[in-house]
């Protein structure tokens, strides 16, 4: 038997062991593929065949999942993959020079893998490090505040065989998971408020909840006025109430830790510093709806936090606040597992996240039914985000009325704001709902702010005349991202980037989102080139309305927002780049440009319109 046959058998055996370790469960497909990717640096055709045989699926079903996620590859990757964050904030912070430094030192161009298979160099959308850009993932290790000199230094160490962690932090291997996370990434907590980032005794909320009836826990959440902190602001009490009443042999609690909105990084900080509070909130929710199983869906970009979170879970089991007979209550059983994502923004949408956890491509589900009645594996499922669960734990600790009295009439409690971009003090600010945007900008040292993207690309771009608006559900709503741009930035460059982000991240299921966003981006490019006319402004509005009204999920209903809000709040930017139509003839029309397609098809030029044409 030759060496290649032995290697093939060993690979097949390794894959069989990975699948067996996960119960040969097709619903754990993403975990299986991540493990194979980690071991082999790609998902080969032979690997897909082996996985399909082990879990009882077709090869095409396995490939459908493997091809969906950007962190999984159907072609060999380098033993070390460097993913540079290509967010607009990173671009403005000097990304191009950092890329050039890595290319020069590693001898590999962007988007390629070195000939010896050692390195892959690529870009990826926002990795949640906008407050310390430019940033990159080196395998699962995070590098922040990169400069060309720092990139060169790191690359030289990697070439010399130094592991990624040690290349970034001396003594990395000897650190605890929490210490590693802190050594790689700064929390940048600029202002800690009373709810999430202030002092919080361990398990106080859970100890208060354990003696309450499930209906009373839900009642306390209702009195508090707690709303989902991911952006939509749906009342948490309603989710818990409907799930508690829905028929089902099982119920699940899901924590959505897939904060992929560019400019958002608050969950990263909560998971680093207040993971106990989040898991406590999930455990309280489990008693409220009688759930025994919980899942935290952790975005692939935060893989560096997984070991830390697993340690926190283990410690909770050891002290009896997670697992069987919680706090000595017979039959009060609840445990949590962490499900890693693999680089898909759409999985921040709850239906897509549930699909991902079921071992499917991360595509949104048709609603109704809603997750609270028919969610994970068809069972009632409560989905809240990281910040929401942390709030729930504090509400049960200090009281519903205490939480209700913070904030405004319709927005209760505090909000963690992730502020980045052109400001002196980027980072996390925990402030009561209703705080004026101007106050937050002053705290962050954004003295030259001219445009602010509130809520990330799916939110609103506002100008100086909106800085007195209040950050709340009833005025200027946000899931947390606040990105500052000074007067020297090009508004349409920002809009163009955000549209390219939505084009890239669309799951492709529905035509309005898949195609419409491409057309919106092309229209913005037309303005940037000075080729737009009066009709194009109305075209932007009409196309945006169509995408919003006919898209299947939240990505499509919010993706036109960069266009619509910039049109509304920065009309002069568009007007300055619009050329009028005179006597029915568009000043931007170019016969030469119009003929380019025909020249390509005919393989020749026009003797009428090409003056230098010769037979």
Describe this entry's structure for a reader:
The longest helix has 19 residues, at 3-21. A hairpin with a 5-residue loop joins strand 11 (414-421) and strand 12. Helix 22 crosses helix 24 (561-569). Helix content is 44%, strand content 13%. The chain starts with a helix and ends in a 13-residue tail after the last helix. Strands 6-12-11-15-13-14 form a 6-stranded mixed beta sheet. The model has no long low-confidence stretch (mean pLDDT 93). It has 6 domains: 3-66; 83-177, 3-Layer(aba) Sandwich (Glutaredoxin), CATH 3.40.30; 204-404, NADH-ubiquinone oxidoreductase 51kDa subunit (Rossmann fold, 3-Layer(aba) Sandwich), CATH 3.40.50; 414-488, Ubiquitin-like (UB roll) (Roll), CATH 3.10.20.600; 492-576, de novo design (two linked rop proteins), CATH 1.20.1440.230; 580-615, no CATH class. It is an alpha/beta fold.
Summary of the model, kept short:
The chain has 615 residues and is of the alpha/beta class. The strands form 4 sheets. The chain has a 6-stranded mixed sheet.
What does the secondary structure layout of this molecule look like, with pairings?
Blueprint: H1 3-21, H2 29-40, H3 45-55, H4 59-66, E1 80-85, H5 88-92, H6 95-106, E2 112-113, E3 119-124, E4 136-138, E5 141-143, H7 148-159, H8 164-168, H9 177-184, E6 189-191, H10 204-209, H11 214-224, H12 236-245, E7 252-257, H13 266-273, H14 275-289, E8 293-298, H15 306-318, E9 335-340, H16 350-357, E10 381-385, H17 386-398, H18 400-404, E11 414-421, E12 427-432, H19 437-443, E13 449-454, E14 460-463, E15 481-486, H20 491-505, H21 511-528, H22 534-550, H23 554-558, H24 561-569, H25 571-576, E16 581-582, E17 585-586, H26 591-602
Parallel strand pairs: 1-3, 6-12, 7-8, 7-10, 8-9, 11-15
Antiparallel strand pairs: 1-4, 2-3, 4-5, 11-12, 13-14, 13-15, 16-17
Helix pairs in contact: 1-3, 3-4, 6-7, 11-12, 11-14, 14-17, 20-21, 21-22, 22-24
């Amino acid at each position: 038997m030759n060496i290649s046959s032995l290697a093939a058998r060993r690979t097949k055996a390794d894959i069989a062991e990975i699948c067996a370790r996960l119960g040969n469960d097709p619903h754990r497909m993403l975990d299986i593929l991540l493990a194979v990717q980690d071991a082999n640096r790609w998902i080969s055709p032979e690997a897909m065949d082996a996985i399909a045989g082990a879990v009882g699926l077709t090869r095409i079903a396995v490939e459908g999942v493997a091809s969906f996620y950007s962190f999984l590859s159907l072609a060999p990757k380098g033993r070390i993959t460097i993913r540079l964050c290509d967010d607009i904030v990173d671009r403005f912070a000097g990304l191009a020079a950092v890329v050039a430094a890595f290319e020069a030192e590693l001898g590999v161009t962007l988007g390629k893998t070195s000939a010896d298979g050692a390195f892959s160099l690529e870009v990826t959308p926002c990795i949640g490090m906008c407050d310390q850009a430019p940033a990159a993932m080196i395998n699962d290790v995070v590098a922040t505040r990169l400069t060309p000199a720092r990139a060169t230094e790191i690359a030289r160490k990697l070439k010399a065989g130094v592991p990624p962690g040690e290349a970034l932090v001396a003594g990395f291997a000897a650190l605890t998971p929490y210490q590693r996370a802190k050594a790689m990434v700064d929390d940048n907590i600029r202002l800690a408020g009373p709810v999430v980032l202030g002092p919080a005794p361990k398990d106080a909320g859970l100890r208060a909840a354990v003696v309450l009836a499930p209906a009373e826990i839900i009642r306390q959440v209702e009195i508090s006025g707690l709303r989902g902190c991911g952006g939509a602001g749906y009342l948490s009490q309603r989710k818990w109430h409907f799930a508690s009443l829905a028929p089902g042999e099982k119920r699940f609690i899901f924590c959505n830790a897939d904060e992929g909105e560019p400019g958002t990084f608050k969950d990263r900080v909560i998971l680093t510093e207040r993971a106990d509070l989040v898991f406590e909130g999930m455990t309280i929710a489990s008693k409220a709806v009688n759930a025994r199983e919980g899942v935290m869906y952790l975005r692939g970009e935060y893989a560096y936090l997984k070991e830390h979170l697993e340690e926190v879970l283990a410690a909770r089991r050891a002290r009896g606040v997670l697992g069987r007979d919680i706090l000595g209550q017979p039959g009060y059983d609840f445990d949590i597992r962490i499900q890693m994502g693999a680089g898909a923004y759409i999985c921040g949408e709850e239906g897509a996240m549930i699909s991902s956890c079921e071992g499917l491509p991360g595509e949104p589900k048709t609603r109704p039914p809603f997750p609270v009645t028919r969610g994970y594996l068809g069972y009632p499922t409560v989905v809240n985000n990281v910040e929401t669960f942390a709030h729930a734990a504090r509400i049960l600790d200090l009281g519903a009325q205490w939480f209700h009295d913070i904030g405004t009439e319709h927005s209760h409690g505090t909000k963690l704001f992730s502020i980045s971009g052109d400001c002196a003090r980027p980072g996390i600010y925990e402030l009561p709902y209703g705080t004026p945007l101007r106050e937050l900008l002053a705290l962050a040292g954004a003295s030259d702010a001219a445009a602010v993207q509130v809520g990330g690309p799916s939110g609103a771009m506002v100008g100086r005349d909106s800085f007195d608006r209040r950050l709340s559900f009833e005025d200027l709503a946000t899931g947390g991202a606040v990105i500052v741009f000074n007067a020297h930035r090009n508004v349409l460059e920002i809009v163009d980037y955000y549209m390219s982000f939505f084009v890239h991240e669309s799951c492709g299921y529905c035509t309005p989102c898949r195609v419409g966003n491409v057309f919106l981006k092309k229209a913005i490019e037309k303005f940037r080139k000075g080729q737009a006319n009066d009709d194009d402004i109305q075209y932007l509005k009409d196309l945006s309305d169509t995408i919003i009204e006919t898209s299947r999920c939240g990505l499509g209903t919010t993706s036109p927002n960069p266009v619509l809000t910039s049109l509304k709040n920065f009309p002069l930017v568009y007007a300055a780049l619009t050329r009028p139509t005179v006597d029915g003839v568009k000043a931007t029309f170019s016969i030469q440009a119009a003929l380019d397609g025909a020249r390509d098809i005919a393989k020749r030029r026009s003797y009428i319109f090409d003056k230098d044409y010769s037979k």
